[in-house]
Design goal:
Among the domains are: about 120 residues, no CATH class; about 80 residues; about 50 residues, no CATH class. It has nine helices and 22 strands.
Amino acid sequence: MRLDLALGFGDEGEVPAVPQRARHRPERKSAAIPQRIKQALASAELADALRTPDQMVLFFQRRVGQGAAGTRVARRQRLAPVERLGAYLAHVIDTHERSGLRAPLGIERSFGHLRRGRGTLRAMHPGQRAQGAVEFRDQGIDSGHGGTCRLGLVYRELNLILVHQKAKQDRVDFETITRRIGERAADIRVFIVDTKQANWSDPRFDASAPALTVSPMPIKRFAPPSGTLCQGHEFPKDEQYRRLGKLGVPVPDWIEIAPDTVLDPQQWGPYVVVKPALGRKGAEIHIKRAGRVRYRPPESFAEGHPARRAPLLAQRFVYTGKWPSNFRVVTLFGRALLCWHCEASHRYVPLNSRWDFKAKGGITVVSNKQDSSYTLARDPEVIALAEKAHAAFPDQPLLGTDIVRDADTGQLQVIECNPRGDAWLISSDMGRMIEQANGLEFASQFGALEVAAETLVVETRARAR
């Protein structure tokens, strides 16, 4: 059953489904060093670099033999800078190589090639031979272990475009995320663009640099100038269930209601939930006797009914207690930003047992309503299931996954992922309404903006093209 928030949606035209390349770009000159390639940190910035895990600095001793004192340094301490480098190699090049390395990369430590004044670290695509090397040359920086370090590292700048939609996300959130990305990732330049801005330009934007555009919801008018595009997209529920099923994510049994559909109550139970494959705001979700479920042609429904656009589905009813309840987990590229539990208002007639529909009328099966009760939840099983479910939609940045727990068996099942992305409840109009009514603060539950910044750094380095 659909347990969806009553969220408003615009009717304007939207950019087609993703993923896709935003625009074609001419090939770069492989033998040249583009202007966007910058020299790595100078010696004056060494202290800051060592305090910042994301900076691309690697040091090798000028003298290979360090004597007895050097042998007391633990091997894992000497390798730590190399390991930190691995996370950054996605967009690194050597100034003397003919072309750059592309992400993601595996790392081959070539300590056998260390010579006086020069070391080599080779980077490879997984399962392939080395494609190139990052070199470190003499620059006379004291390593602190009695030797001199070498810096000759350069990196690519990357573009990250965040597409904002008024009323669905507070722009201040995106500005905060931008600052935090800037503090941890000198290689990423962030731009915030309104989804309705048709003719966008910014003199700081380098169209020749790899780019990633992230829009939680479908874009309206903005056209990404280059690179990879990840945006929200509305998948019918039957497609969501198929994707989730392939990953082994549990969902309640379901079937599309077709002309020949006949449901056996012995198999499905006496009642099932009937819902539209494409529906919003929890509309047109009903409980129905399994033996009475019948197909109706789309034209038999009233204008505007979701069944005119997509089929109806019948789904096994999950009993969550006297009043319907569910969890909502908001994830950004598979990382949880918030998790709540909601239960329908007790003004509704309670369902005292699983199949007690006949005894009492006026029973609702939808829990996400404006007058429902919301509490923050930290159930690790629920969060892990939602993060796993996001893998079924790898190119949709923001999901609001609804999960139910059977009151009798305790089994968790996903009933919807809302891949359209109308789920930035940290600061959307609907999210703030729920916060105020229930005394909650979503942003502080898991440090949502910090998690978002960390996640976007990783995704930009992995996806920007």
